[in-house]
Design a protein that fits this description.
There is one protein chain. By secondary structure, this protein is mainly alpha-helical.
């Protein structure tokens, strides 16, 4: 099948299918005229890619994991480095969640302070933490803190 048919079957644009090929996620055969030729396995492969993207994985990581994937909703079989890769991705995601939680807390404090009367106005003009609270930067990525 040609790229247009694969796009129709999977609901993925031809532009994205070309991008997946550039990233090494798809490897279509080529006709003598240079047209891409896909088979049924490529339909499964695109569904695997989409599922792994929804999990928050980058195309670089997906390229590493695809050889371990079976079925359209991928089941990952034991492959070398699979567990280490997934654990690393999960740790990175946890660090991002921690960063976002810290940022949310700080933003919430700014909002609360801005809503409180200060300096004779109906809204705050500066951030002044409540007595007994400690200053926490709005954004301080986990990787920079660990360094």
């Amino acid at each position: 099948m040609r790229i247009g048919e694969l796009a129709r079957l999977t609901g993925v644009s031809t532009r994205l299918l070309r991008y997946y090929e550039e990233q090494g996620l798809l490897r279509p055969a080529r006709t003598t005229a240079g047209y891409r030729e896909y088979d049924e396995q490529d339909t499964v492969r695109v569904r695997q890619i989409r599922s792994l993207l929804v999990a928050g994985l980058s195309t670089r990581v997906i390229a590493e994991l695809l050889p371990c994937a079976t079925g359209p909703v991928p089941v990952l079989e034991a492959c070398p480095n699979l567990l280490a890769t997934l654990r690393g991705e999960l740790a990175d995601l946890d660090a991002k969640i921690d960063d976002l939680t810290r940022s949310r807390r700080a933003l919430s404090r700014y909002l609360t302070t801005a809503q409180e009367p200060a300096h004779g106005t109906t809204y705050g003009t500066a951030y002044e933490p409540a007595i007994g609270t400690t200053y926490e930067p709005a954004y301080e990525p986990a990787r920079e803190r660990a360094a």
